[in-house]
Design brief:
- By secondary structure, the chain is mainly beta.
- Helices cover 12% and strands 33% of the residues.
- It contains one helix and eight strands; from the N terminus they run αββββββββ.
- It has one helix at residues 2-18, and strands spanning 36-37, 58-64, 71-74, 77-85, 91-92, 102-111, 114-118, 124-129.
- The strands form two sheets. Strands 2-6-7-8-4-3 form a six-stranded antiparallel sheet, with no helix packed on it.
- Residues 1-28 have low confidence and may be disordered.
């Protein structure tokens, strides 16, 4: 009986160790959680990222929330919300209060046609290039 017990514990240990690797990719099984610090607003200054962002680099970015978060202008072009990843948070810390209709977070160019917006207390929002300019806000 002790030999069977040892084999059982060894098997359980191997299974658990195979699942314990940490990862920075929210899609991976070993995802370790948020990696960016919560942002606060710079008084009277909007963060919009560079005109030509590099891939996989998070840039401070403020979203105008007056009309919702469906359209963004980033990296010299318009983007439209394509997907929200419920439960996936990339920013750790307490969400800052919305200041005058803006949300402080980060934009990350994931690929040539994919960008993610992340903010504290929010799921990752994925954007794709828009085929047209956004309509006016009502």
């Amino acid at each position: 009986m002790p030999r069977q017990t040892a084999v059982l514990f060894l098997s359980a240990g191997l299974l658990l160790s195979g699942c314990s690797s940490s990862s920075g990719d929210p899609g991976d099984e070993g995802y370790a959680g948020p990696t960016l610090p919560a942002r606060t607003f710079a008084k009277d200054k909007w963060q919009e990222g560079p005109a030509k962002p590099g891939q996989h680099k998070p840039y401070p970015y403020d979203v105008n929330t007056h009309c919702g978060i469906k359209w963004l202008y980033f990296g010299g072009r318009w983007w439209i919300l394509d997907h929200v990843f419920p439960g996936v948070e990339q920013v750790r810390g307490t969400p800052p209060s919305q200041d005058g209709g803006r949300l402080a977070g980060y934009m990350t160019l994931i690929g040539p046609d994919t960008a993610n917006f992340d903010a504290a207390g929010m799921p990752t929002m994925q954007f794709v290039p828009a085929k047209r300019k956004p309509p006016g806000c009502a």
